[in-house]
Amino acid sequence: MALEQMIEDGFKAAQSGDVLLLGEVLKAYPELVNMENSDGLTLLGYAAHFGNEAAVQLLIGHGAEVNAVSHSKVSYIPSNTALHTAIAGERSLDVIRLLLNHQAEVNIFDSNGHTALHTAAFHDDNIELIRMLIEHGADVHARLEDGETTLSLALQQGNHNVAAVLRQHGTAE
To answer: Domain containing 92: what range?
Structure first.
């Protein structure tokens, strides 16, 4: 199979969670584990976004760089880590936990200036996710370039349960 087809198959497998196909792709082209597609996205980020825990585990097992920042060329997708994409996508707590247990850095900023905690506060009213990120060292005081905080993002989105947890951990607007 041509390399271009293998890349396409790898991304389809990461999206669908087809670990058999993904394993075949990585066996044939192990260097694809950290390669970006033409959109600047990584296999790990793709699998994490779609909540495919087995695919994420397989990619990590093949040496995927957990903290690699993609170079997104898609206007509505920021350049970010697999942790960011997992939170902005399906928000699978199992995938997020897996990434964190493999030393995913919670305080890396994406190209929008968001940490994983900013992304979580914006996207969901899930206090378990917020607590998990804080337990793994998320900076509750990190601000966006315009000075906005995780708390203000949560409140803007109506994520009041998240706002309450952030307040408990000392964050301010």
So the answer is: 1-105
* CATH code for the domain of 173: 1.25.40.20
What per-residue string of b and e applies to 136-172 under the rule 16 or more CB within 10 Å gives b?
bebbbebebeeebbbbbbbbeeebeebbebbeeeebe
Amino acid in the structure at residue 168: Q
C-alpha span between 147 and 172 (Å, rounded): 11
130, 167 contact by CB (below 8 A) = no
* pLDDT at position 1 over 70: no
Query: How many Cα atoms are found within 13 Å in the side-chain-facing hemisphere of 3?
Result: 9
Residue the block writes with tokens 């009041």? 160
pLDDT tens per residue, range 88-105: 999 999 999 999 999 999
Q: Residue 85, Cβ neighbours under 10 Å: how many?
A: 27
- Rounded Cα gap, residues 150 and 95, in angstroms: 22
Please tell me the pTM assigned to this model: 0.94
Same domain, 21 and 97: yes
